[in-house]
Write a structure and sequence with these properties.
mainly alpha, 4 helices
């Protein structure tokens, strides 16, 4: 299991698993065009959760 992935999945509980998968596999400019999944694998869970929270504030998550 990838550390931090459970927090991403939990954040998308109401939106569904496909939205969580979309978030995890979509390249992000904040991550240097890496995907959140790649960042999680690199041990950057805090950064991924910050991005997730900012999207939630913007109304996307």
């Amino acid at each position: 299991m990838v550390p931090g992935i459970e927090n991403v999945v939990r954040a998308y509980t109401s939106a569904g698993p496909w939205m969580a998968l979309d978030f995890l596999l979509a390249p992000d400019s904040v991550l240097g065009e890496r995907t959140p999944l790649e960042a999680l694998r690199a041990g950057e869970a805090d950064l991924v959760l910050r991005i997730l929270r900012s999207e939630a504030v913007d109304g996307f998550a």
